Amino acid sequence: MNYPNNHLDNRAGTPGAGHERVLHWLKTQGPASTAEVASGLGITAEAARQQVQKLVADGLLAGETMPTRGAGRPRQAWTLTEAGHSRFPDAHSTLTIQLIGSIRQIFGDDGLDRLITQRAAETHTQYKRAIDPLPGLEARMEKLAEIRSAEGYMARVERDGDDWLLIEDHCPICAAAKTCQGFCRTELELFQALIGERGTVSRETHILAGGQRCTYRVKTSA
């Protein structure tokens, strides 16, 4: 399934300068060596090296020692720094954090929780309208990923044995979620409500917990 590219801003979109393509590729694929970057993008090793070094010099990438499988020396891989991640949409994080702070100050934590619950209910209604007419779990998962991608989550669906994985390579509300983790709780509840009796949803990796991405596993019902 093809997902739209308009979830990226002009600084980190797939089209454009080579180093931006490298940044986007590492964002979606996770830590990788220079050789893996070259292979993944179909460019020469020298071109990949130059583009990676530019991103390192700009503070957007950093080296990370990755363990090897079995015998052998650990390998170095490149991963996005916090500045690198910030090149992708963040849903106006500064304003969002300020608004959350104001709501908490005026209405307290209970008022903020009611607001998050109301937002979740509205989102559920919108998603349900788009997903409910679709037959089968696969079609529903793909539609959910399409909707989430359009909102900036860089979402995709993969099959893992009998299970499905909803993978989100970016969190456009990360700043808000760090301030109030109720946003993350309601997202997990939202996905379960949309899947319903077709399966059980669990979160396996979490950006706020230091993960490269957010991954949700859907175990199909027997």
What's this model, at a glance?
It comes from Pandoraea vervacti. By secondary structure, the chain is α+β, with helices and mostly antiparallel strands.
Over the alpha carbons, how many angstroms does the gyration radius reach? 19 Å
In the sheet with the most strands, the strands line up as 3-4-6-5
Cα end-to-end separation: 26 Å
SSE pattern: HHHEEHHHEEHHEE
H/I helix tally: 8
Pairing-aware structural class of the strands and helices? alpha+beta
| Strand elements, count | 6
Pick out the low-confidence regions: 1-16
Percent helix: 40-55%
Shape: globular
Residue-averaged pLDDT? 81
Main beta-sheet annotation: 4 strands, antiparallel
Q: How large is the share of residues in beta strands?
A: 15-25%
Can you put this structure into words, describing what you see?
With 222 residues, this protein is of the alpha+beta class. 50% of the residues lie in helices and 17% in strands. It contains eight helices and six strands; from the N terminus they run αααββαααββααββ. The chain has a four-stranded antiparallel sheet. A hairpin with a 2-residue loop joins β3 and β4. α2 packs across α3 and α5 runs parallel beside α8. The longest helix is centred in the middle third of the chain and has 39 residues. It is globular and about 50 Å long. The two termini are 26 Å apart. 27% of the residues are buried. This is Transcriptional regulator.
